[in-house]
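Please fill in the sequence for the structure shown.

STRUCTURE ENCODING:
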């Protein structure tokens, strides 16, 4: 039950109680008035009928309140006995036919879920389900590597120019080009990476898995080379610092 439905139900319940109480009080007053008018003395004194009427209404009102409170307390206690944490239903919690029906429905739902999973189909620009590239979008993943390479390039070369939108990678990372190894065709990983980024930026079609792998392999090679250069710089700085401290001690 939603919160709005519970609120409306509570308001209607209170309204029904008030209406019932009003008409009960009105009928009680009418009967008491009639008992007074029909008595020989026309007073409340020694009016047995008025006493019976008042006692009857009081008894009915007390019994009504008692049963309402009893019901509320019983429901509250039952709700308190319900565990707040999840508990797996056991076979003893259900009648045997109900338990068998639940098992059949659960098995049927699991089978439908398994059969409805995509197996052969795939969407262009996304990794195939069941492979290591599942749920990977090629275009977004390749574009995210630009920021990673740029941050590492600034650590190796502090004077590296800032990244500009839509600038070719071959031009932006030209300062790290001498650090990269060339293959048999005379091309560095930066050349392959530039081609992959140009493709995902400007091509109307989505990149294929082969093109994505070429771009990611080139990005990994560039990052590995920059990391090696950074580690060499740190080792060289530490060695120079140790030599300087040793020279000062000798002097």
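FILLED IN BY: designer on duty
SEQUENCE:
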């Amino acid at each position: 039950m939603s919160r709005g439905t519970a609120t409306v139900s509570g308001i209607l319940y209170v309204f029904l109680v008030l209406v019932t109480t009003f008409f009960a009080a009105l009928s009680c007053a009418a009967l008491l008035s009639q008992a007074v008018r029909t008595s020989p003395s026309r007073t409340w004194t020694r009016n047995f009928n008025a006493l019976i009427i008042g006692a009857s209404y009081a008894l009915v009102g007390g019994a009504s309140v008692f049963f309402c409170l009893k019901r509320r307390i019983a429901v509250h206690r039952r709700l308190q006995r319900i565990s707040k944490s999840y508990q797996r239903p056991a076979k003893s919690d259900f009648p045997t036919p109900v338990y068998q029906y639940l098992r059949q429905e659960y098995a049927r739902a699991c089978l439908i879920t398994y059969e409805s999973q995509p197996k052969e189909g795939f969407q262009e620009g996304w990794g195939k389900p069941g492979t290591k590239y599942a749920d990977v979008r090629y275009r977004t993943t390749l574009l995210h590597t630009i920021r990673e390479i740029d941050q590492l390039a600034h650590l190796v070369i502090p004077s590296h120019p800032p990244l500009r939108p839509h600038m070719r990678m071959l031009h932006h990372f030209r300062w790290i080009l001498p650090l990269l190894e060339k293959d048999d065709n005379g091309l560095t990983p930066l050349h392959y990476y530039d081609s992959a980024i140009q493709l995902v930026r400007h091509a109307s079609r989505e990149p294929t898995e082969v093109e994505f792998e070429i771009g990611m392999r080139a990005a990994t090679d560039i990052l590995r080379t920059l990391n090696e250069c950074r580690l060499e710089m740190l080792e060289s700085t530490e060695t120079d610092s140790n030599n300087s401290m040793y020279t000062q001690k000798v002097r």
